[in-house]
Amino acid sequence: MMKIAVASEGKMTAGHFGHCENFNIYDVEGKTIVKEDSVPNPGHKPGFLPNYLHQLGVNVIISGGMGGGAIDIFNERGIEVIVGAAGEAKANVLAYLEGNLVSTGSICHEHQHAGECGNH
């Protein structure tokens, strides 16, 4: 079982992680979504959301853009970060499961990391 969260505005992938309206959370077995849930964004405080999603058992986070600080915390927690996504949240999850959704490394703010996620 794997949990994938998508930073969202309703059913659509949000452009910025911290300021999204809600997180659509998908429980996945193999390449099949077995459960869908949505939780409201509990608030944007530095470092809070990555730990919140970690406590929910999330393994992968998909978003449009994300600050470098959040990406670092997700990496420390062993959560895979996919940024640069757009369009319908569920479609992005299905694309990810098929291996067709690749992170563009689209980092918000002044934190410019040199490469792909995890290669610091």
Automatic annotation (TrEMBL):
Pfam families: Nitro_FeMo-Co
Domain Dinitrogenase iron-molybdenum cofactor biosynthesis: 10-97
Annotated protein name in UniProt: NifB/NifX family molybdenum-iron cluster-binding protein
Species name: Holtiella tumoricola
